[in-house]
Amino acid sequence: MTVRNRFLAAVGAGALLLGASNAFAAPEAKAEKTAGGGVSEQDILNDAKTTDDVVTYGLGPQAQRYSPLKAINKETIGGLVPAYSFSFGGEKQRGQESQPLVKDGVLYVTGSYSRIYAINSRTGEKIWEYNARLPEGILPCCDVVNRGAALYKDKVYFGTLDAKLVALDAKTGKVVWRKDIDDFKAGYSYTAAPMIVKGKIITGVSGGEFGVVGRVEARDAETGEVVWKRPVIEGHVGELNGKPSTVTGTVNETWPGDMWKTGGGATWLGGTYDPELNLIYFGTGNPGPWNSALRPGDNKWSASRLAINPDNGEIVWGFQTTPHDGWDFDGVNEFVPFDMQRDGKTVKAGATADRNGFFYVLDRTNGKFISAMPFVANINWAKGIDDNGRPIYDDANRPGDPAKSEDGKKGKAVYATPGFLGGKNWNPIAYSPDSKLFYVPSNEWGMDIWNEPVSYKKGAAYLGAGFTIKPTFDTHIGSLKAIDPATKKVVWEYKNKAPLWGGMLTTGGNLVFTGTPEGFLKAFDAKTGEEVWKFQVGTGIVASPITWEQDGEQWVGVAAGWGGAVPLWGGEVAKSTAGINQGGSFWAFKLPKKLAAR
Amino acid sequence: MPVCTRRALLAGLGALAALPATARPFDEVSASGVLRVALYADNAPFSDLVDGKPAGIDVAVAEALAEALKLKLDLRLVDSGENVDGDFRLNLWRGDLAGTPLADLMLHVPNDKILGTRNEQVFLVRPYLEQRLAFAWRRGTMEGLESFQDIEGHTVAVESASTSDMQLLLAESGRYRQNLKHFRNVQEAARAFLAGETQILAGTRAAIEAALHGSKANLADVPVVELALTGPIRSRWDLGGAVRSDSRDLGYAVGEALGAMVETGELKAICARYGVTYTAPSGF
Q1: 3-state secondary structure of B213
Q2: What CATH number labels B132-225?
Q3: Which site from A212, A332, A485, B116 is most exposed, i.e. has the minimal number of CB atoms within 10 Å?
Q4: How far apart are CA A117 and CA A100, in angstroms?
């Protein structure tokens, strides 16, 4: 801002109208100068290679979260310094899980409670803010978080806690259109970052309770009109161009009676995309009702990864990580396409670190199982994964059949590892094509789980579950692991006292970045795991960092603000996160040129 | 638990954006002249929107209560959350994300000691009626419905995830799972039953009786029965009210008024308007 504008912004209410328009004019004008045509299809497809912008969730449609930038590396990182901190303002600080986007000098970052900000990416000055008005009686699941926005042409898109998808003018923050993803009153919500594929905006559904059936939807990004819908539970009919399309699976193949009608499978975390194969990859949530004794069968396609044709919404393949789930092992975790060298050949593979504690590598062309390995300690719900990718269950560690518990009694508790928050939760993994390693933010914990007879819903008796989550080790819960997908080996591990809830970033500078609940943004040597840098942001980090280049300098950015699911749990886990302060801000760091040249 | 767990998470949610107005002790409620009551939406025949207006047994009870306490009724229908514990939190002691003012009283609250003990922020008001699980069956389509075994060979319309649904899904290790037809609510289930799509309708006695009462069915053709079944799902429970724990005196006043309504037969008369057989809770 110029001195004049600064003065105007500071004058009293009488001059505010005049002053405000001028105060905001400066950064906006700057953005306009370089904005050009906004974000093109090509910008999205090339996002992993173009270092001066980040226009997709995941730094590229494949979401490898890898940037080739190498100015910041083990040698230079000592000079990485904060450039600015931007506050999300007010009292709404908790739960900042957003991955920012940067394009043409403007940084877009969503905040908790369904807010989004455009700020000057060089100075941190606010250009505009959009604050969704949330209705009364809203019951969002999963805290008040938002995980990020999408950019396409002249618009920026994000979803809100009341299950609406909003398209805003990227320059002004004014609403272009707003569409219901679903009815928030029925328990739907939206917290994921939407994805743009070939001019369509792709979303799943968040939250909900028993009765909600997950689906993936594509809308025309210009108008918001639905192009196709794909329900993920067998028996449900999809939609294409306003007409019924095909049935998902075959009715009653893996579900008893008509229980598929309310089968669950919420697609609440969003997807990835492989332009080469023209396939969208989406994970699906666990089946309902929670107790598996009520729904014998594999319950497809709950707790699965699906490959979907983005043009028509047809399922090309499915792979179920936890058939007949009984532990709340949501299958929503991201599936990351990568090319794997094996026996001198390049395999078109994809990997996913599942809630159930196993790291899977699949053939991404057809969903065929390649390998699986446990990535957390003491897994006991399954003895392993067989040659077809199916778990070898340990029935002693499946929560009991409530029919077998005595009248009014608690029922047998089982201790299962991982706990229902998963070996890995929502926070995304990264893959470096340099080190050929995956970086997986995992957590070492298990749970006691039992049928809870004193449970009521809407004033009526209900079959509830009781559960307590417990750390596996005394020393730590969080465990960042570097995994070699070809050899199924953990190459290095960084242990963190508190659970890891932030996403990963890896760079051409041979670094891995992630944040901790203790409030440190940390950098590690990508090959050895040596911690080479840390910075305290004053509150817990539960978001995914990004890096970009501007004015010949490499920048790193991350949202900070303790929240998400972990602080909502008490008991042993709470001990590891006691004393973490609230906060809500976006932090930008840069390596000044003169230091880079040193 | 599954998807639901994430909603349950809100139980521990810390600082909320806007601090809602707190629930109030009786003297404050009296001074304001208004009793704020939260009832479940979509919960016929107890509380539901009929032609855009709240109607039902609990609505009538709330109106009678306000009158007995000489207060103006501020009634709101709220969506049910993951569990009643969560509803207490949203409606009575912490509030929602949007900063909606708290209610002074919730009705339709299961009067269960364990539920009360684990929710120290609320005080349970004495029960005013008993809920029972029941079945309706259609004469002429089956010989009779005297035990669960009689379900064999027939289909049952039931609300998804309701108490009756859980009971039927679990009965005899899932023997009747294939016989169930699931619907969004009891009304839709009742419509399917009355249209002849199923031979049996399952639900609470109140919901079944109200649905039959509201239809043109000849009640002699569709007897309502209760079947005994052991298992983890209880087939009867008492309903009362709940206030915030610092508003016990309001709770006692409400309890007294409810007790009077039981004794004078007013509750029975309210239920009868909906075709529902009134069952007093144990202790009356």
Answers
A1: helix
A2: 3.40.190.10
A3: B116
A4: 10
What six digits make up the tokens of A335?
């599936």
Q: What is the pLDDT of residues A38-79, one digit of tens each?
A: 999 999 999 999 999 999 999 999 999 999 999 999 999 999
What is the ipTM, given to two decimal places? 0.88
Phi, psi of A375 (to 5 degrees): -115, 5
A117/A119 Cα distance (integer angstroms): 6
pLDDT tens digits along A298-340: 999 999 999 999 999 999 999 999 999 999 999 999 999 999 9
Is the CB of A138 inside 8 Å of chain B's CB atoms? yes
Q: How far is CA A487 from CA A350, A373, A438, A482, in A?
A: 15, 10, 12, 12
Chain A positions in Cβ-Cβ contact with residue B179 (cut-off 8 Å): 257
CATH number reported for the structural domain that contains residue A330 in this entry: 2.140.10.10
* Interchain CB distance below 8 Å, A454 and B114: yes
Active site residue A387: no
Length of chain B: 284
Catalytic site residue from A43, A298, A328, A354: A328
CATH of domain B22-130+237-273: 3.40.190.10
A157: closest CA among A112, A192, A208?
A192
| A296, A420, A461 ranked by CB distance to B233: nearest | A461
Sheet holding A81-87, edge to edge: A81-87, A585-590, A553-560, A546-550
* A461 and A549 belong to one structural domain: yes
